[in-house]
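User: Show me an example of a complex going from sequences to structure tokens.

Assistant: Sure. Here are the input components:
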Amino acid sequence: MIGTPILPEIRELIEKRNFSALQRLFNDWLPVDLAELISDLPESEQAILFRLLPKDVATETFEYLELDAQQNLLNALTQKDVTHILNSMSADDRTALLEELPGTVVQELLKLLSFKEFKIAKTLLAYAEGSVGRLMSPDYLSVKMDWDINQVLEYIRTFGHESETLNVIYAVDDHGKLVGEILARDLLLSLPDRKVSDIVSDEDKMITLTATQDQQDALEAFKRYDKVALPVVDSNGYLIGIVTVDDMLDVAEEEETEDIQKFGGIEALDEPYIDVPLLQLVRNRAVWLVVLFLGEMLTASAMTYFEGELAKAIVLATFIPLIISSGGNSGSQAATLIIRSLSLGEITIHDWWNVMRRELLSGLMLGGILGTIGIFRVVFWAMLLSHYTTTWLLIGFTVGLSLVGIVLWGTIAGSMLPLLLKRMGLDPATSSAPFVATLVDVTGIIIYFSVASLLLKGSLL
Amino acid sequence: MIGTPILPEIRELIEKRNFSALQRLFNDWLPVDLAELISDLPESEQAILFRLLPKDVATETFEYLELDAQQNLLNALTQKDVTHILNSMSADDRTALLEELPGTVVQELLKLLSFKEFKIAKTLLAYAEGSVGRLMSPDYLSVKMDWDINQVLEYIRTFGHESETLNVIYAVDDHGKLVGEILARDLLLSLPDRKVSDIVSDEDKMITLTATQDQQDALEAFKRYDKVALPVVDSNGYLIGIVTVDDMLDVAEEEETEDIQKFGGIEALDEPYIDVPLLQLVRNRAVWLVVLFLGEMLTASAMTYFEGELAKAIVLATFIPLIISSGGNSGSQAATLIIRSLSLGEITIHDWWNVMRRELLSGLMLGGILGTIGIFRVVFWAMLLSHYTTTWLLIGFTVGLSLVGIVLWGTIAGSMLPLLLKRMGLDPATSSAPFVATLVDVTGIIIYFSVASLLLKGSLL
């Protein structure tokens, strides 16, 4: 069975306690689909179904379970089952589970591990969250340069069952120092009497990771070099683990979520939206909301400064939201484009002048378009309500000119701010859409009233 | 040489026309790094350097080049070189190049292909842009169920050199119908006298793609099933190609860029920011900017409606930007969270009530926080300027209560709109940050003045 499980059918079998039928059904399922089914069940039923799984897929199914379900099963299963699962699951998935549990629980669970697995788990947990070390698996195969392919194949058949991948294996020297990689491809293509040294990759063309690097670096390396696995070495070049490409799609997703949340003006959440406790959700949002609110208070101050003008021409007030929001929107657009281009490496801070020139022109054109619509709106509306006087033409031009200025300023601010943050060594994504909008709102009011003073002095003001 | 090339050194060698030194240097470089170097050079120099490449890496380097550089080289190289490159590059990369060229150029280039490659290229180009067909490679190996492993290995050594991957090969029946997959892992682990049928995957557990599916579906399948390659079959189950995981990281990046740009209120760009012609850039931004502007015009109408109140209490106008922007910001936050959760499958539209409850509570708390700050701002400011009267307390409460209402409304609108769009079969990402902000601005003004009428009737109004 591929894809979404047929839940009603399953539900009926569970209600009827028809375990043998369930067991037969599960034989045809993939671990990932079994895991989805179990994750979707109420906690009380998860362990019942998990125990029905064929022995050979139980651990793999556990690896695919959602974190909540994993934690629930750790409590609900017998110590014997938990011991078996923890010792047989792959090291990187185990790290991902352990890092989410409270320290005391982790200590209890570590005691269940064999000495070998205990050492591995301890080592991997010692690396920082979000580092390559946390993604790393110590289950790889390494061979010597002077072996022939027959020896390698023999070695693989004996020791390869535990290896995280056999798509690539590694050549090390007598001290365990990484000297090259051997692709399954080359192993399969070469004649059995060739030597490892004949088919191994060039040492100085090897791409390696270190365990303390950020997982984002690993993602970049996988994207750039199109590999299915990359070796992790310590500072002396000794092979200590591997990272496989299947983990990278998850890392890409995680990093994307972080970027998008930052851009929406939220402190990135650690967990899925629906699982985050309400108070933490509010906290992650309140931080930025309050900062932006404090910044936006300057608009009130700016407007108080122009209260005299406002009193004389109330009509000016009615266009304020229209005008400042246009600045905010054009600023968000520019910031979005530049932040994304920076993170894709399409532009660097050295391109700032190039960007500035494009944005100056874009801003003028966009401002021109909105300004023209703005003038028409003001003038035709007055005509429509048949209270048109030449003052309305002046108001129209005030609105139109302000729009050109504010859209231009929004565009420039939105595009230059990410570059400036990057230059200062900060994360460009901090210049989120709401942040740029706030910045532009305050200055927008000043631009608007300055244009108004200039054009309406003597008539309305 | 790994990573960023040392450009000044290269520059000097180019100036001096020291081609032999360049050639020696290039011997140690990876194709992807060579491609980056050549892509960064002025167009006039790209062909000169490309011709210096070792023959065995020229095609691979070409595959990694940026599109501009590829197009330039197609013009600058001899017809013989172009013919060689086009015939030897992998079919999926060739499709990606051809799909960006004008039709007449494509016709010319197709003539250079051998009959076999011509047929492949034509077939792949017939699939829609963004479909699995465009990512597909026809270079895979397929074997029969009754072969033994020795026969398979023999077959691989003879025909495997052209195959896009050997990490997985496929078992087909006598008619070419896909019946199972064989992982390099199992091939390496099994004894040579075993049969293909012993190690092949279960037929009903196979994951397959079809050529007309969207590339987003392929990405989902790779994420879910942790595969290094997936087979593509036609409607009758015949194997027609494969898609490999290395292309998926690029697809993920492309889809992410589209999401982020949409969310920033821009029609997604087809090319990198810096390469998009200025007029197209302006067009892609103007569409949404004008739509939002027209929507935001309603704020002016709303404010005109309250002009009487405004004239009596100018002070109310000064808080408008502060109040409506808070609604916009909380709306953007909520929309960001919900859009992302939907696209990750963490929530579905059936969770709407659950989401609504969380957002109601979040909105009340966030509104409470901002409202409290708002009241203090108004009252203490008045005290500070020592013109405090009880009216200021009323104004303070007007601002505070409006903030609660508007933040709550922003949160609800921002979270429900993506769900509503999804329900209507539209893309939830269309409810971009600027769009939600505009929606909330208009209603925000109505909320503000309604609260003001209620609280200030008899004192200020």
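The lines above are the inputs; the final block is the predicted structure for all two components together. DSSP finds 23 helices and six strands in chain B.
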